[in-house]
Every structure is written in structure tokens, then in C-alpha cells.
Specification:
Elements (H helix, E strand, L loop, with lengths): L8 E2 L15 E5 L5 E6 L3 H20 L2 H17 L1 H12 L3 H19 L5 H5 L1 E2 L6 E9 L2 E5 L7 H12 L3 E5 L6 H11 L8 E3 L4 H10 L5 E3 L8 H9 L4 E3 L11 H5 L2 E9 L4
Parallel strand pairs: 1-3, 6-7, 6-9, 7-8, 9-10
Antiparallel strand pairs: 2-3, 4-5, 5-11
InterPro entries: Ald_DH/histidinol_DH, Ald_DH_N, Aldehyde_DH_dom
Keywords: Oxidoreductase
Protein name: Aldehyde dehydrogenase family protein
Length: 285
């Protein structure tokens, strides 16, 4: 007797949980061959607000973790993703219509990118910070700290690699993230959320909202509790309008094709850090 296919509904990822969209809306995701793959939630303005609240709540624990611990967690993401490699290869192959070899190469590069950024968690501050020469009996030290809560429009051209390339460097320094993944290929984003949920990433540190970017991005750009806006994947949208909305709350904005684009780089890490300078009196004895 043949079995019935069990269609999956991919939900949002907010605060470490997988809620349905507040609106209850979903859309059909079709494969490259036009066949039905799954339903994906369509995020609303209310979902965006909930994600910002969750990200703000998760930020303190993540930013307060040691650099070594953050590196362990990012490496754990790579381990879990490696264990589910076959699932991601099949999802990418079905969504993008590419060969298994091309899909596998994308997954492998995404895994390697997590490992690469995991290695930077306890090193970037030594490169970016330092002791400053000053006149007088003082120590003057500059240390990079996380910007805070970053809203991200992930690269849209692929299902997984662009998403990982955008969020991994933001997490290195201790930021929390609300991300809009590929609108055309959303399924791998929620599968990645399942990986994050089982990789010791504190709840709320990463929040993923699927659906039309143009509907949700303006609300994140204008939200007063979002500290920075990464428009890495917004090139095909009205990103100057997003930037203008962000200006009202003095957000840091990285434009499409900004620091390092989405290639692995120290610039991507430092794009979402702030420099804290501390003065300390030297002993006169």
C-alpha cells in the first residue's frame, strides 16, 4: 500500500520557538520543476515586532558570554549542520533546481563558513583593539563591543550560503539578529533554525522571518529598538527607502555590497561592533 505524502509547513523562528505567523498566512513554495514542496509562513508587522523583542531579550546573555564560549557554539552549529547535510542538499536541489553536486558544494561552504567565523570569536578584538599612546600617566585602551540588535536582509540568490554569510559574522562579537532570508528559497532558512535551536544558541539570539522582504523590511528599518541594519541582500529592493527609514533612529546601515560583501572577512565582523575606550590612571609609585 502506498503512503500519502505528509506536507510540511515551515514556521517562523522567534525567541527559540517555531510559531505560526500572527496573521496565519502561509504561501506555497514550489520547486524549480513547479512541484509543491511545502508551505512557508508569511511574516507580518506584528511578527517583526515580536522578533525584535525576542532578539533584545536574548542579546544580554549572548553578549555576556565569553569569546571562547561563543566560538564553541558557532562551531557546534557547523557540527550539527554537517550531520544534517543530506537534508540540506536535497532541499537546495529541489528549491533551486541545481544538481546534487552544486547543492552539496553550497552546504559544504556554509559549514566551512561557520567554522571560519568560530575561529575569530576570541581573536578579532586583539586585531581591532589596542593600547593608545596618550600624554600623561594613563593607560588608554580601545576594545570592540557588539553594536546590539542587527536586522538583516540576507542575500537572496541562494537558499543557505548567503544566509549563513550574513548572520555568522554578526554573531561573532555578541550581537543578536532578526533576519529576512531568501524570499524565493525560504525552506533552508527554517531548517537552519532547527540546527540553531539544537546548537546551544540562546533563545532570541537569531530570529528568522520568512515572507516578502518588501513587506517586513520597512518595519525593521524604522524600529527604534534595532541598532543596525544590514542590507547585504536588499539590492533588488527599494533599499534607499529602508536606509531613509533607518536614519530616523540613527541606525548604523551597511548598504548592499558593503564591507566585504558576503565573503568571509574581518570587515564583516567589525561592521557591527563599536569601539569602547577606557582610561585608567597609572600608579605613580
Amino acid at each position: 500500500m502506498s503512503r500519502l505524502t505528509v506536507p510540511k509547513t515551515y514556521k517562523l523562528y522567534i525567541g527559540g520557538a517555531f510559531p505560526r505567523s500572527e496573521s496565519g498566512r502561509v504561501r506555497e513554495v514550489l520547486g524549480a520543476d513547479g512541484e509543491f514542496l511545502a508551505n512557508a509562513a508569511v511574516a507580518s508587522r506584528k511578527d517583526a515586532r515580536d522578533a525584535v523583542v525576542a532578539a533584545r531579550g536574548g542579546h544580554a546573555k549572548w553578549a555576556g558570554a565569553t569569546a571562547y564560549n561563543r566560538g564553541q557554539v558557532l562551531y557546534r552549529i557547523a557540527e550539527v549542520l554537517e550531520g544534517r547535510r543530506a537534508q540540506f542538499v536535497e532541499e537546495i536541489r529541489a528549491q533551486q533546481g541545481v544538481s546534487a553536486a552544486v547543492a552539496g558544494a553550497q552546504v559544504d561552504e556554509a559549514i566551512d563558513r561557520w567554522v571560519w567565523y568560530a575561529g575569530w570569536t576570541d581573536k578579532y578584538s586583539q586585531v581591532a583593539g589596542g593600547a593608545n599612546p596618550v600624554a600623561g600617566p594613563f593607560f588608554n585602551l580601545s576594545v570592540p563591543e557588539p553594536t546590539g540588535l542587527v536586522a538583516v536582509v540576507a542575500p537572496q540568490e541562494d537558499a543557505l550560503l548567503g544566509l549563513v554569510s550574513a548572520i555568522a559574522p554578526i554573531l561573532v562579537s555578541g550581537n543578536s539578529v532578526v533576519v529576512l532570508p531568501s524570499e524565493a528559497y525560504p525552506l533552508s532558512a527554517i531548517s537552519l533554525a532547527e540546527v540553531l535551536a539544537t546548537s546551544d544558541v540562546p533563545a532570541g539570539v537569531v530570529n528568522i522571518l520568512t515572507g516578502p522582504v518588501a513587506d517586513v523590511a520597512p518595519w525593521l528599518a524604522s524600529h527604534a529598538d534595532v541598532n543596525a541594519l544590514d542590507l547585504a541582500g536588499a539590492g533588488a529592493y527599494d533599499w534607499p527607502a529602508f536606509e531613509a527609514a533607518a536614519a530616523d533612529t540613527l541606525k548604523r546601515v551597511v548598504r548592499p555590497g558593503g564591507p566585504g560583501a558576503v565573503a568571509p572577512s574581518l570587515e564583516r565582523i567589525l561592521a557591527f561592533t563599536e569601539m569602547k575606550t577606557v582610561w585608567h590612571t597609572q600608579s605613580l609609585r
